[in-house]
Amino acid sequence: MIELKNVEKSFPLPAGRQWVLRNVNLEVAEGDFLSVMGPSGSGKSSLLSVLGLLDSDWQGEYRFAGQAVHAMKERERKSFARDHVGFVFQHYHLLDDLTVAENLDLPLSYRDVPSSERRSRVADILDRFSIVAKKDLYPRQLSGGQQQMVAVARAVIGRPRLLLCDEPTGALHSSQGEMIMDLLAELNRAGTTIVQVTHNPDYAARGNRRFELFDGWLKTAA
Ligand SMILES: Nc1ncnc2c1ncn2[C@@H]1O[C@H](COP(=O)(O)OP(=O)(O)OP(=O)(O)O)[C@@H](O)[C@H]1O
Ligand SMILES: [Mg+2]
To answer: What pTM did the predictor assign?
Structure first.
């Protein structure tokens, strides 16, 4: 489904070039669940930004379902990402001025989904994530774990083929972390391809393939 060929990213700095991704080659099959580990600053979030089509400032080739992402213009890339990718950010990135239900509706509002269908999908996902009681609350009225649940719900409400999760359990207690991981496993069983960044070896082991990043070099992990 996904193929990266010699993907490289760097920033020019006065002291020389700051490398972020180096010669990254990766193939991801439909239904894979990848775990990426690595020290802080090793390029994990940068790799997810490339995979999620949030960043286009890199060199190399990226094919997604046969489409050449590296050749896409900005508009095309953004609409492709909206249609195919869900993103759970390292920090939840919920909109503070919108309620839980409004946050969940947002990705659908960008995608020409009819309003009756939007309402029913929001209701379904609130139910599935056991957050119906929170639907009219604002993010600041939720615990960290609940905010992360909403962030995952928002990432999957558009039924993306690819779900990217940047330390989705980083700020959570272990029981909340388990809940998020169970949810990811369930989405994966239902066919969603997942790439997660995690610092937790037990959570990394939930993936079917494990990788490590060091200074921008991606290696298969044992
Ligand atoms: N605008 C920039 N200019 C220069 N270097 C940058 C810039 N943005 C990011 N970097 C560098 O890119 C490298 C990778 O950052 P990235 O956020 O991908 O790391 P990470 O592995 O996700 O770390 P963490 O575990 O702390 O989230 C870091 O060394 C960072 O300093
Ligand atoms: Mg990061």
So the answer is: 0.91
